[in-house]
């Protein structure tokens, strides 16, 4: 399915077939084409996997790093959800050893934003690893509300430094089972 970006938009908007419903985990798996990527339609900044393929999106070079996703369905009231990204840092990576990135999330467009600072471990090779280290959880209020969709993302927009070499393989949102709730931040 074609992206919903405006004609000539420099940004990549999420494509329908790349957000998978993980029914058994009460969550979603976002493949790279299922994420909103600022400057994602510009080949000089990002390399998207070909349509229908399952590879990572590769950051070539940007100053404004913003990759985000949203659930189409409301989250279950009173539950906790874990958010993570599977990434790798290639040999051409630059600036990540000096700059943190931030994972941020909120429930509903008007919700309070929760965030965590992440220092990427720079590794030799293209080894995949999950960020953030440890759990990043968000609570869904028990009160009824019209908008309890999850809005989340990775950001580094404050440094005015050129960044590159990060590959995003997927993002995952899943409900936390009650016996794991001791891991809350």
From TrEMBL:
Superkingdom field: Eukaryota
This chain belongs to the protein called Uncharacterized protein
Origin organism is Erythroxylum novogranatense
Organism classification, top ranks?
Answer: Eukaryota, Viridiplantae, Streptophyta, Embryophyta, Tracheophyta
